[in-house]
């Protein structure tokens, strides 16, 4: 008996509605206690967020145009794992830091992984902190829309995460995780 | 000129691929600097997360079966805004606390709002902290799959958020925001 059956959930049928390079949208028909329901959900290959930290203790933020929102957001470098091609999570994190922020080098520390929007998505987000990166020129991808690279003391970035000036939820969470990890490392 | 045009992004066409009670999946054709791309993205009515805090300083967590993951996750009460029917965010937060955790009463404090998975979703998540709730019987919705209600001191819940035992990213983030808000309120 799988876990779903323990809760009285049993898949009756599945349709694959949409496929892209990044996602697959499924529509499942599911028997649940007291009836049936249609569950539309999205499978995603996962993503990586990385907080680049300079030797002086400042965080590197990017200002990214988001087509979905018609807004610019302060974010940390991040990328999806759809074109992973056998690369490790760390290699993807380093590539995104370089492309989006021009940050390279440093020691990567894992801050763990979490599910994102788990009622709708099967999307695992991996978080990293990069201690002691250096800033150089960016290597932007086609269609990448980063207008600004900003360095900010970690405590100030954490204040921006808490008050919503960093409006991207995963970036704000990444910075709070990084703040805790740094407090542990340098008490 | 809208913000997209400032970055050289211009929508050429749009298809509505999928509609459910919760989401709309769009496929847009977009002109970007150096070419064109297809952008598939999802519009969502938003969601509310609420951290219920008892008078003794413990947080109320729920263990929720997630069909998307075939896993149970520790979470805080949350719900989508698709059936809002004119209710305020606070009313939705209170309804979810009662349904999922049997928590009622208390003073709601906003912890702000953030975008979730902003490369794929247009989904605004609203966060609340409920100070001084009381626990009673739950009022579960059809298809709701909460197996356990657990109370945990806030500091311990924050440790679970940081080490990934709370594997739901938005719940973990909500608890870190709640911890900061409580530290500010009771220094």
Could you explain how this protein is built, in words?
Two copies of one chain form a homodimer. The first copy, chain A, is of the alpha+beta class and 187 residues long. The first copy, chain A, has two domains: 41 residues, no CATH class; 139 residues, Nucleoside Triphosphate Pyrophosphohydrolase (Alpha-Beta Complex), CATH 3.90.79.10. In chain A, the strands form three sheets. In chain A, strands 4, 7, 8, 9 and 11 form a five-stranded mixed sheet that branches. A four-stranded mixed sheet of chain A has the order 1-2-3-10, with no helix packed on it. A three-stranded antiparallel sheet of chain A has the order 6-5-12. In chain A, helix 3 packs antiparallel against helix 4. The radius of gyration of chain A is 19 Å and the shape is elongated. Chain A starts with a helix and ends with a helix. The mean pLDDT of chain A is 94. At the A-B interface, helix 1, strand 2, strand 3, strand 6 and strand 9 of A face helix 1, strand 2, strand 3, strand 6 and strand 9 of B.
Strand-helix topology:
The structure is a homodimer of 187-residue chains.
Chain A lengths: L2 H4 L3 E10 L4 E9 L2 E9 L3 E8 L3 E9 L4 E5 L2 E3 L8 H13 L1 E2 L2 E9 L5 E2 L1 E12 L10 E8 H10 L5 H17 L2
Parallel strand pairs in A: 3-10, 4-11
Antiparallel strand pairs in A: 1-2, 2-3, 4-7, 5-6, 5-12, 8-11, 9-11
Give the tags.
Nucleoside Triphosphate Pyrophosphohydrolase; 2 domains; 4 helices; homodimer; 5-stranded mixed sheet; alpha+beta; 187 residues; elongated; 4-stranded mixed sheet
């Amino acid at each position: 008996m799988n876990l779903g059956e323990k809760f009285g959930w049993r898949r009756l049928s599945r349709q694959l509605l949409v496929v892209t390079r990044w996602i697959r949208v499924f529509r499942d028909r599911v028997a649940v206690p007291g009836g049936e329901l249609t569950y539309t959900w999205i499978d995603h290959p996962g993503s990586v967020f990385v907080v680049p930290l300079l030797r002086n203790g400042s965080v590197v933020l990017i200002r990214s145009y988001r087509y979905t929102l018609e807004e610019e957001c302060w974010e940390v470098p991040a990328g999806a794992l759809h074109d992973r091609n056998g690369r490790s999570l760390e290699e993807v994190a380093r590539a995104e830091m370089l492309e989006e922020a021009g940050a390279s080098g440093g020691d990567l520390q894992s801050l763990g992984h979490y599910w994102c929007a788990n009622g709708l998505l099967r999307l695992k987000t991996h978080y990293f902190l990069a201690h002691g990166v250096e800033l150089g020129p960016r290597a932007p991808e086609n269609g990448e829309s980063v207008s600004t690279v900003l360095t900010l003391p970690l405590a100030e970035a954490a204040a921006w995460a808490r008050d919503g000036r960093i409006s991207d939820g995963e970036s704000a969470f990444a910075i709070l995780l990084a703040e805790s990890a740094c407090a542990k490392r340098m008490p």
